[in-house]
Design a protein that fits this description.
about 325 residues, 5-stranded mixed β-sheet, binds zinc ion, 2 domains, 3-stranded antiparallel β-sheet, alpha+beta, 9 helices, single chain, Nucleotidyltransferase, domain 5
Length: about 325
């Protein structure tokens, strides 16, 4: 058993043990450790204690929603366990919320998730929607500043670029129609870092659309031109006239050999489309919604299952501070 598998098993077992224990206390401890609930006790800010930096204490309080709360030993004022957390405006039981997080990272279906968390479809959808949105926002933010060419100040090279059609189903009353969008991907071979952008409908595959994306994420200069590999599509021909080293891989001869390939992008599309994950998604009303879905799949593909709960919790904790997203009860 290699180390990553071992780690995954331990991470999985830990959460499974807590879920099986049905212990409210252990669940809360785990959520505090993940920063989904306040990990440190809050400072009391009552009129009496304001500015004195008095830490509140955790105490058992069976009359409270979560069976615990924070109490100030000086003025005796109390705070809910969900005080200043993403859960503060929901009354869904904390064990159910924890299980919904686990159901989400394990990519359970809605039916499996409802049974696992013992909740209604509305609660599940509300939480899943919140998590999807949080991840898409995080992936988008990370992408804005990402440089494929530069890692820790070192210029690398060897970037493959490609476009691929993604098909999804749109339901129209009791009828359905499939729609296609172009997705443009760039991948750096040494680090396997990649960036995907949804371009738009079938007419969106143009130089005008990809040029600013390449300029944003791929640095190059005359003395040290960045090596780019693409297929023979006309949209890339402008690269010859700028400071890139552009190699065209001819697909008629397979996907190329040695360094001269676009195998990395082909593998990327296979992963993103794998298990029909994208195709199952329905009724995207806007291109932004399609991009969000691509970003979610990207996150799932890049984040090993063993670390997903930790990473997702970090995203949520950050979200709470930035945009005060809340899970709304249904
Ligand atoms: Zn106080």
């Amino acid at each position: 058993m290699d180390r990553s598998t071992d780690y995954f098993e331990r991470a999985k077992e830990r959460d499974r043990d807590i879920v099986c224990s049905h212990s409210l206390g252990e669940t809360i401890d785990r959520l505090r450790e993940l920063n989904l609930l306040q990990s440190r006790t809050p400072t009391c800010n009552s009129d009496q204690c304001e500015g004195q930096n008095i830490r509140m204490r955790v105490q058992i309080d069976q009359s409270r929603l979560d069976g615990q709360n924070f109490r100030c030993s000086s003025c005796n004022s109390k705070r809910a366990m969900r005080f200043r957390s993403i859960f503060q405006d929901t009354r869904v039981p904390i064990g159910c919320l924890y299980r919904l997080f686990l159901a989400f990272i394990q990519e359970m279906t809605n039916e499996e998730g409802m049974e696992y968390a013992d909740c209604s479809i509305k609660t599940l959808r509300s939480v899943f929607r919140y998590l999807r949105r949080s991840i898409a926002t995080a992936v988008d933010q990370e992408r804005q500043g990402m440089q494929l060419t530069e890692v820790n100040g070192v210029l690398r090279g060897g970037i493959e670029m490609d476009e691929s059609l993604f098909t999804h189903i749109v339901e129209l009353g009791d009828d359905r129609v499939s729609q296609q969008v172009w997705v443009f991907g760039m991948i750096e071979r040494n680090t396997n870092r990649f960036i995907c952008y949804v371009l738009g409908n079938t007419a969106s595959k143009t130089t005008q659309n990809i040029r600013p994306l390449i300029a944003r994420h791929v640095q190059t200069n005359q003395n040290n031109p960045t090596q780019i590999y693409t297929d023979g599509a006309m949209i890339y021909s402008y690269l010859q006239n700028e400071h890139y080293a552009h190699t065209v891989v001819v697909h008629q001869n397979g996907f190329g050999e040695g360094d001269n390939t676009t195998n990395h992008t082909e593998a990327l599309w296979a992963r993103l489309k794998g298990a029909g994950r994208f195709k199952k998604s329905k009724n995207f009303k806007t291109l932004t919604a399609v991009q969000d879905e691509i970003d979610l799949i990207t996150w799932m593909v890049q984040t090993p299952k063993a670390t997903r709960l930790t990473v997702l919790s970090q995203i949520c904790a950050r979200n709470y501070q930035q945009s005060q997203l809340k899970i709304i009860d249904q």
